[in-house]
Amino acid sequence: MVNSLDDVDDAGGCNDEHCSLREAIAFASPGATITFSVTGTITLGGSELLIEKNLTISGPGARKLAVSGNGISRVFLAKSATTAHLSGLTIQNSTISGNTAGGAGGGIYKEIGTLLLTIPNSTVSGNTAADGGGVAFSFSPVDLSNSIHANNTGGDCKLFNTVTTDPGYNLVRDGSCISAATSRSGDPLLGPLTDNGGPTWTHALLHKSPAIDAIPFGSNGCGISTDQRGVERPQIGACDIGAFEFARGGGKGGGSNGGGPKK
Ligand SMILES: [Ca+2]
Ligand SMILES: [Ca+2]
Prior knowledge:
The chain contains 1 helix and 20 strands. The longest helix has 7 residues. The termini are far apart. β19 and β20 form a beta hairpin. The C terminus is likely disordered. It has a domain of 168 residues. The chain has 263 residues and is mainly beta. The structure holds calcium ion (CA) (2 copies).
């Protein structure tokens, strides 16, 4: 049970007093499930979280827990022949500098094996890698829905020898990894990563973003009933792609609706 948002690996290991996500991964038995008693943002101290055994990391909800590379490192690297199941968390602001060996998958890189990544209603943006800045997958199928992938340096999504499952309603700026008729490419018009209300930072959808109301009510559901900040979905009748629901005239997001009621 992760009970701290810091990235400290102290001498005490993982116990009731202090257990960081880094410690939980290091001390977990193969096949274990890691859960969380904290919400907010875990900001990594400069190095990626290495997963070298079969693990399930079950966050409290994509809108409640974010793991940030702080613009310095990739967030997760899952090594060969492991099964890693990540759910209920947001991956943000991760960067890996481009080198030829490891320069893929700025946010997440999964080598051979199985990665069951649940990132519906997520926004993957501002990540950097030589190849596949947002997410990269090698020999491991990936399931995307209702998500935005944009503005990642090195490509928004990269598949090596694998296929993507696209249930639809994805907006991928460079058009990578999408196949469903309801998914599209193009600029999602994102604001900067900042405090728009809620426990974690988000990229607001700007006025006229094509992500706004792109998911008809009842199609794919809204995924979840609130956005990452806690603002109710849908607003204005239909659901928005990604982690942020645009609300004209404010709402529970404290008035930060990413563009304002410009008509
Ligand atoms: Ca500890
Ligand atoms: Ca909407």
